[in-house]
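Reply to dn_fold:

You asked what the input looked like. This is it:
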Amino acid sequence: MKLAISGKGGTGKTTLAALLARYWAEKGKDVIAVDADPDANLAGALGIPTQTQITPISDMRQFILDRTDAQAGYGGYFKLNPKVDDIPDRFSHKLDGIRLLVLGGAATGGGGCICPESALLKALVTHLLLSPEQIVILDMEAGVEHLSRATAKSVSNMIVVTEPGQRSIQTALNVRRLAQQIGIDNVAAVINKLPEGLDTSSLESLLNDLPLLGTLPYDPAIARSDLEGRSCWLDTSEQRRYVEQIATAIWPETG
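and this is what came back:
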């Protein structure tokens, strides 16, 4: 199972990534959670203490130069397929059966830059998506920059997290369009921060034909956990019920 989770900033995509990672890890699955958002917050959502020093892969400058045979500075030649298969074991942070990798962002240019950092990050994502043994959960930006056409077909599902509002839903539809352009056809939505008593039927009509996997209610306890730097996994029966609904909609065998 290889999931890419995207959505507009603040919708709760990192929360959903952490909740699914926790849920499947408790089921005994080998889970690799990948923070592919340059504004990295997945460690805190998983419950890794805020004082833990985590260096993003993209900031390991000398390591990147060594692996890509690049020279310091700009220009020159470098490998587009560097060795990356040892990175998950060497640089992941382990917690309760989950291995966390923080990618960071390429130091130069935009999402399409050709630089040693982006070459190594894309090679690493490709390796993770093509490895059959683990569940891989990619917490992404509201886009598909870390994926290429060559690896997109290895993504089992792209989940777009949206809030119950038209602007957020429009972003979800745009992400679906971008994902389909590179070959990801299995795209679905999760509505987060759903107010109590709100009927989802009007929201489903705004989603057009984007399937809805489930919802997560607005929960002040999750907001407090974020402020206090604690895990968003509250381990309550209500939270577990909502997360299990989404997890089984993605992968029925794990219900």
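The first helix runs from residue 13 to 26.
Hope that clears it up.
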